[in-house]
Amino acid sequence: MDFYLITLEGMKKLLSDCSEELNASYIADCIDKWNDSKDVDYFLKGFSEKGVFAGFNFAHTDFESEEKKFWVQQLFGGLVAMAMQLAKFQKQGRTVSIAFIRQNFGHRAEVIRGAECEDCRYRQINSLDIDRYIVLPVVSTAIVNGLDNNDLNNEIDKLVSLKSAHMRSESDNAKLRASNTDIVVVEGRQPLTVCPRCGSKKIKSRRFLKSLKNNSFVALSK
Prior knowledge:
Strand order of the largest sheet: 3-2-1-4-5
Number of strands: 5
Distance between the termini: 46 Å
Mean pLDDT: 95
Largest sheet: 5 strands, mixed
Strand content: 5-15%
Radius of gyration: 20 Å
Structural class: alpha+beta
Number of helices: 8
Helix content: 40-55%
Protein backbone atom coordinates (compact mmCIF):
# COMPACT_ATOMS: atom_id res chain seq x y z
CA MET A 1 0.00 0.00 0.00
CA ASP A 2 0.98 3.61 -0.53
CA PHE A 3 1.49 4.69 3.07
CA TYR A 4 2.55 8.21 2.10
CA LEU A 5 -0.58 8.80 0.04
CA ILE A 6 -2.84 7.39 2.75
CA THR A 7 -1.25 9.73 5.30
CA LEU A 8 -1.67 12.77 3.07
CA GLU A 9 -5.32 11.90 2.50
CA GLY A 10 -5.79 11.63 6.26
CA MET A 11 -4.21 15.05 6.76
CA LYS A 12 -6.45 16.58 4.11
CA LYS A 13 -9.55 15.03 5.69
CA LEU A 14 -8.67 16.30 9.16
CA LEU A 15 -8.00 19.81 7.92
CA SER A 16 -11.21 19.88 5.89
CA ASP A 17 -13.26 18.56 8.81
CA CYS A 18 -11.83 21.39 10.92
CA SER A 19 -12.71 24.09 8.34
CA GLU A 20 -9.04 24.70 7.48
CA GLU A 21 -9.83 24.72 3.78
CA LEU A 22 -6.82 26.76 2.62
CA ASN A 23 -4.42 24.36 4.26
CA ALA A 24 -6.42 21.36 3.10
CA SER A 25 -6.02 22.70 -0.43
CA TYR A 26 -2.25 22.73 -0.03
CA ILE A 27 -2.29 19.08 1.01
CA ALA A 28 -4.54 18.32 -1.98
CA ASP A 29 -1.82 19.82 -4.19
CA CYS A 30 0.73 17.61 -2.43
CA ILE A 31 -1.44 14.60 -3.27
CA ASP A 32 -1.66 15.65 -6.93
CA LYS A 33 2.10 16.12 -7.18
CA TRP A 34 2.68 12.72 -5.65
CA ASN A 35 0.21 11.00 -7.97
CA ASP A 36 1.59 12.80 -11.04
CA SER A 37 5.34 12.56 -10.51
CA LYS A 38 6.07 11.05 -7.06
CA ASP A 39 7.17 14.51 -5.95
CA VAL A 40 7.61 14.99 -2.17
CA ASP A 41 9.55 18.25 -2.26
CA TYR A 42 6.40 20.37 -2.36
CA PHE A 43 5.18 18.73 0.84
CA LEU A 44 8.54 19.05 2.61
CA LYS A 45 8.78 22.70 1.56
CA GLY A 46 5.36 23.41 3.06
CA PHE A 47 6.46 22.06 6.42
CA SER A 48 9.92 23.62 6.41
CA GLU A 49 10.93 26.37 8.80
CA LYS A 50 9.61 29.05 6.44
CA GLY A 51 6.90 26.97 4.78
CA VAL A 52 3.20 27.73 4.65
CA PHE A 53 2.59 25.49 7.68
CA ALA A 54 5.23 27.14 9.86
CA GLY A 55 3.56 27.96 13.17
CA PHE A 56 0.29 26.43 12.01
CA ASN A 57 -2.57 26.09 14.46
CA PHE A 58 -6.26 25.39 14.02
CA ALA A 59 -7.23 29.06 14.06
CA HIS A 60 -10.42 28.62 12.05
CA THR A 61 -11.79 25.75 14.10
CA ASP A 62 -14.48 26.24 16.71
CA PHE A 63 -13.67 23.38 19.06
CA GLU A 64 -16.45 22.25 21.37
CA SER A 65 -14.01 21.49 24.18
CA GLU A 66 -10.38 21.87 25.19
CA GLU A 67 -10.11 18.09 25.21
CA LYS A 68 -11.11 17.81 21.56
CA LYS A 69 -8.76 20.65 20.61
CA PHE A 70 -5.89 18.85 22.31
CA TRP A 71 -6.50 15.57 20.52
CA VAL A 72 -6.98 17.18 17.08
CA GLN A 73 -3.74 19.13 17.43
CA GLN A 74 -1.81 16.09 18.60
CA LEU A 75 -3.28 13.88 15.90
CA PHE A 76 -2.36 16.36 13.19
CA GLY A 77 1.16 16.55 14.59
CA GLY A 78 1.41 12.78 14.42
CA LEU A 79 0.21 12.71 10.80
CA VAL A 80 2.74 15.40 9.87
CA ALA A 81 5.54 13.43 11.53
CA MET A 82 4.55 10.26 9.68
CA ALA A 83 4.23 12.00 6.29
CA MET A 84 7.55 13.80 6.69
CA GLN A 85 9.40 10.60 7.55
CA LEU A 86 7.83 8.73 4.64
CA ALA A 87 8.68 11.62 2.30
CA LYS A 88 12.32 11.54 3.43
CA PHE A 89 12.45 7.79 2.89
CA GLN A 90 11.11 8.35 -0.62
CA LYS A 91 13.88 10.84 -1.37
CA GLN A 92 16.41 8.29 -0.10
CA GLY A 93 14.92 5.60 -2.31
CA ARG A 94 13.93 3.50 0.68
CA THR A 95 10.80 1.42 0.97
CA VAL A 96 9.44 0.55 4.39
CA SER A 97 7.14 -2.19 5.62
CA ILE A 98 4.29 -1.79 8.05
CA ALA A 99 6.30 -3.88 10.51
CA PHE A 100 9.12 -1.33 10.33
CA ILE A 101 6.71 1.56 10.82
CA ARG A 102 4.99 -0.13 13.74
CA GLN A 103 8.30 -0.79 15.46
CA ASN A 104 9.78 2.67 14.98
CA PHE A 105 6.93 5.18 15.02
CA GLY A 106 5.94 6.57 18.38
CA HIS A 107 6.67 5.26 21.85
CA ARG A 108 4.93 4.78 25.16
CA ALA A 109 5.31 7.45 27.81
CA GLU A 110 7.03 6.49 31.03
CA VAL A 111 6.39 9.61 33.13
CA ILE A 112 3.18 11.41 34.01
CA ARG A 113 3.20 14.93 35.47
CA GLY A 114 0.93 15.92 38.31
CA ALA A 115 0.88 18.17 41.37
CA GLU A 116 1.72 17.78 45.05
CA CYS A 117 0.98 19.85 48.14
CA GLU A 118 4.21 20.66 49.96
CA ASP A 119 2.44 20.80 53.33
CA CYS A 120 0.32 17.63 53.47
CA ARG A 121 1.73 15.68 50.47
CA TYR A 122 -1.65 15.46 48.76
CA ARG A 123 -1.01 14.32 45.17
CA GLN A 124 -3.22 14.86 42.16
CA ILE A 125 -3.41 14.42 38.40
CA ASN A 126 -6.14 15.77 36.14
CA SER A 127 -7.60 14.92 32.75
CA LEU A 128 -5.02 16.98 30.88
CA ASP A 129 -2.18 15.25 32.71
CA ILE A 130 -3.61 11.90 31.64
CA ASP A 131 -4.09 13.00 28.04
CA ARG A 132 -0.48 14.17 27.84
CA TYR A 133 0.65 10.85 29.28
CA ILE A 134 -1.29 8.63 26.86
CA VAL A 135 -1.22 10.76 23.70
CA LEU A 136 1.88 9.27 22.05
CA PRO A 137 0.85 5.61 22.17
CA VAL A 138 -2.77 6.41 21.31
CA VAL A 139 -1.99 8.62 18.30
CA SER A 140 0.85 6.47 16.95
CA THR A 141 -1.20 3.27 17.25
CA ALA A 142 -4.19 4.87 15.51
CA ILE A 143 -2.05 6.08 12.61
CA VAL A 144 -0.15 2.82 12.17
CA ASN A 145 -3.32 0.72 12.39
CA GLY A 146 -4.95 3.04 9.86
CA LEU A 147 -2.06 2.54 7.45
CA ASP A 148 -1.98 -1.20 8.00
CA ASN A 149 -5.72 -1.64 7.40
CA ASN A 150 -6.08 1.18 4.85
CA ASP A 151 -8.76 2.83 7.00
CA LEU A 152 -6.89 5.81 8.42
CA ASN A 153 -9.90 8.08 7.99
CA ASN A 154 -11.91 5.83 10.30
CA GLU A 155 -9.13 5.95 12.92
CA ILE A 156 -9.09 9.74 12.61
CA ASP A 157 -12.85 9.93 13.16
CA LYS A 158 -12.63 7.78 16.30
CA LEU A 159 -9.95 9.97 17.84
CA VAL A 160 -11.55 13.29 16.88
CA SER A 161 -14.91 12.16 18.28
CA LEU A 162 -13.13 11.00 21.46
CA LYS A 163 -14.64 7.52 20.96
CA SER A 164 -11.41 5.58 20.51
CA ALA A 165 -11.47 2.34 22.50
CA HIS A 166 -7.68 2.48 22.76
CA MET A 167 -7.86 6.01 24.17
CA ARG A 168 -10.32 4.86 26.85
CA SER A 169 -8.28 1.80 27.80
CA GLU A 170 -5.05 3.81 28.09
CA SER A 171 -6.84 6.44 30.17
CA ASP A 172 -8.40 3.82 32.44
CA ASN A 173 -5.04 2.15 32.96
CA ALA A 174 -3.42 5.47 33.90
CA LYS A 175 -6.22 6.14 36.39
CA LEU A 176 -5.78 2.69 37.92
CA ARG A 177 -2.03 3.24 38.25
CA ALA A 178 -2.72 6.55 39.96
CA SER A 179 -5.23 4.97 42.34
CA ASN A 180 -2.72 2.26 43.23
CA THR A 181 -0.19 5.00 44.07
CA ASP A 182 -2.52 7.11 46.24
CA ILE A 183 -2.72 9.83 43.59
CA VAL A 184 -6.13 11.50 43.33
CA VAL A 185 -7.56 11.73 39.81
CA VAL A 186 -9.85 14.70 39.09
CA GLU A 187 -11.81 15.86 36.09
CA GLY A 188 -10.82 19.15 34.50
CA ARG A 189 -7.74 20.53 32.83
CA GLN A 190 -6.67 23.41 35.07
CA PRO A 191 -3.55 23.20 37.27
CA LEU A 192 -3.93 22.70 41.00
CA THR A 193 -3.44 25.96 42.91
CA VAL A 194 -5.00 25.27 46.32
CA CYS A 195 -4.79 21.94 48.13
CA PRO A 196 -8.32 20.53 48.61
CA ARG A 197 -7.16 18.60 51.66
CA CYS A 198 -5.45 21.26 53.80
CA GLY A 199 -6.04 24.52 51.93
CA SER A 200 -2.35 25.21 51.36
CA LYS A 201 -1.24 27.16 48.32
CA LYS A 202 2.21 25.57 48.38
CA ILE A 203 1.70 23.45 45.28
CA LYS A 204 4.54 22.07 43.20
CA SER A 205 4.73 20.10 40.01
CA ARG A 206 5.60 16.44 40.52
CA ARG A 207 6.60 13.68 38.13
CA PHE A 208 5.59 10.05 38.55
CA LEU A 209 7.39 7.19 36.79
CA LYS A 210 5.51 4.14 35.54
CA SER A 211 6.52 1.16 37.66
CA LEU A 212 7.84 -1.91 35.85
CA LYS A 213 6.99 -4.18 38.79
CA ASN A 214 3.30 -3.48 39.22
CA ASN A 215 0.45 -1.37 37.90
CA SER A 216 1.41 1.81 39.75
CA PHE A 217 3.58 4.91 39.59
CA VAL A 218 6.71 5.81 41.53
CA ALA A 219 7.20 9.43 42.61
CA LEU A 220 10.42 10.92 41.26
CA SER A 221 12.52 13.03 43.57
CA LYS A 222 13.09 15.75 40.95
